Amino acid sequence: MLVFLLFACQKSEEVKKILVFGHAGMGLSMSQSIYHDNSKEAVSLALNLPTSNGVEVDVRMSKDGTLWLYHDELLEAETNGTGCVADLHDDQLKELAYNTYKKERLVKLSDVVPLLQEHQVLFLDIKHMNSCQNKFIDFDLLLEALNEQVLSYSSQIILICSNEYWLNALTDEYHVVYSTDELSEGKKVLLNHPLINGLVVRNASISKSDIDWIKEQNRSIYLYDIRSVKGIRQAFRKNPTGILSDDLRNALVERGYAL
What we know:
Layout: H1 2-16, E1 19-23, H2 40-48, E2 54-61, E3 67-69, H3 90-93, E4 121-126, E5 129-130, E6 135-136, H4 139-149, E7 157-161, H5 167-170, E8 175-179, H6 183-192, E9 198-202, H7 208-216, E10 220-226, H8 229-238, E11 242-245, H9 248-254
Parallel strand pairs: 1-2, 1-11, 2-4, 4-7, 7-8, 8-9, 9-10, 10-11
Antiparallel strand pairs: 2-3, 5-6
């Protein structure tokens, strides 16, 4: 019995060390969320929850080179606008609102970065495609935009990139993790790019032994697509570096802190 209790306490302490972040604010496409994902309201709420380690947001670049928060490929999927963020000017984007009861406005990245508290981290999931034109956005313009709009906060920012060709240039100034649904590909990327910090992987796509291997390489591993208490507990048992949870409140409670 004593051995069991010591083991349970050890596992509890491990869970408390796992970092917990809100996915797209308070959750991505969650019907019970108070605010729309990637809105300033959702990000602010997530950052103000006790013991929250930060949030992840989705970032797209406008035609003017400004970074905006938006997840979907097309604006008509979630807003009163049409087309792609990359093809619109800032004065057009600032007029758009989500198709929700509260009609939250689209928001610039520069308007949410200052909401970070000293101990918190902001993950920027860089959306590298312009789906309306079926081509990559201009990387040089993206890097210029990042450096102009968030470089002063670089110590609190982790870039999520799914384009392997951009990794080396991004690591010059930022912490970078590679996002992939293919774990075997992710492992190869870790070996080929020693300067990146780790991986972001769907919770269902990775085992505890794979997470242990990544940690043995002195890399970080973050899990996402975690939408239920059951999923939160499953993710915690794997002992990743952190999770990007779509149910931030329950993730913080399950980690062992009462809100």
